Amino acid sequence: MNDNGQRPPDRDSQTENEKPPLPASLAPARRRAPGDASSGRRTKLAHQTGAPGCFVPTRHPGRRHRPADQPALQSAWGQPVIVENKPGAGGNLAAGEVAQSRDEHTLLVGPDTVLTINPHLYKRLGFDLRTSLKPVTYFASFNQVLVCNPATEIASLQRFSQLPASRTYASGGAGTPSHMTMEMLQSTLGTKLTHVPYRGPGPAALDIMGGNVDCGFIVASVVLPHIQSGRLRAIAVSGKERSGLLPTVPTVAESGHAGFDATFFETLMAPAGLPAPVVEKIQRDVRAALQATSIRSRLAEMDLRVEGNSSQDALTRSREDFAKWGTIAQKTKLQLD
Q1: In the predicted model, is pLDDT for residue 29 greater than 90?
Q2: What is the separation of C-alpha 269 from the centre of its chain, rounded to a whole number of angstroms?
């Protein structure tokens, strides 16, 4: 542990086969919300290390992370908020710990893919991610940017769509947002490039720049300096809206494929048995913390768009995206355990 009560993050692997057990019960006899002085507890956020969310810095894998809204939540709840980086199995290890928690003091922070993509890819966990966890709120949304080596002929999505199967694309790992976004795009375009997975977006971007791989979807915060320096060429953004860091780069939808949307969300999740009043209180406190100008500015620097929606809205969107990514997983026949 360091002075902030954090553990140094370990290197994560999307293909690790760690399987947390299903808890016998998720519902304690009595619950106290964070901020209830009588609880005498501290709140722990289990963080899927490597997730590009409300943790800074994220541009350098392996460095310690601190939640951007941690001080505000500590002030609102009157108790410490501890971050524990817990990598493993694409976020499933951290998810399993939170699913086993019997109170509201252990929450999960990570991409919504824990609820929308992982259930399709991991069938042998021993517990159901979607019934063991519930979304409290989406902190912020983020997208992927399709980038290519500038030495290639790929300067537009139209040219990309003409590439043969012998051409390659990099991702941050099998089943990650970058991988699934590319598979969605290929399903839309009818292409089938060769997938080259890496251990994170940083190494993937480096090999694209080095000419070892043609292109790939990478988060904007990782590739922005390389786009600005001319070492990478930005082709399109995966989400419904353009990136705040790359306002001149069109979305895939704007490039002639209406309806294409691969938006992801940094999500706060809780055990499924947490009562609605407790969930609502946590959501309100997080939403209030996200209104601070300093937090919004820091998130914008990482190409994160503040959300702070209700638990019900987050649940509705997660169900829609679960169905969407299920179609892609079925087409790719991808299985990671």
Answers
A1: no
A2: 12
Tokens in use for 294? 């300093």
When computed from its CA atoms, the radius of gyration of the chain, rounded to whole angstroms, is 20
pLDDT at 53 over 80: no
- Of the candidates 243, 239, 235, 222, the residue with the CA atom closest to the CA atom of residue 149: 235
Give the per-residue pLDDT at 170. 98
The pLDDT of residue 19 is above 70: no
Report the CATH number that the domain containing residue 232 is assigned in CATH. Answer: 3.40.190.10
Handedness of CA 198, 201, 203, 206 (dihedral sign): positive
Please indicate, yes or no, if residue 201 is contained in any of the structural domains: yes
Nearest one of 235, 114, 266, 131 to 175, comparing CA atoms: 114
Whole-number Å distance between alpha carbons of 222 and 138: 21
Same domain membership, residue 218 and residue 190: yes
Query: Which pair of tokens denotes residue 148?
Result: 């290519």
Q: Would you state the pLDDT for residue 86?
A: 72
Work out the end-to-end distance of the chain between its first and last CA atoms, rounded to an integer number of angstroms. 31
Q: How many CB atoms lie within 10 A of CB 11?
A: 11
In this predicted structure, what is the pLDDT of residue 44?
A: 62
> Does residue 177 share a domain with residue 102?
no
What average pLDDT does the chain have?
Answer: 81
Strand order in the sheet with 264-271: 81-85, 43-47, 106-111, 264-271, 133-142, 305-306
- Give the type of residue at 35: G
Q: How far is it, in rounded angstroms, from Cα 332 to Cα 190?
A: 13
pLDDT classification of 327: cutoffs 50, 70, 90: very high
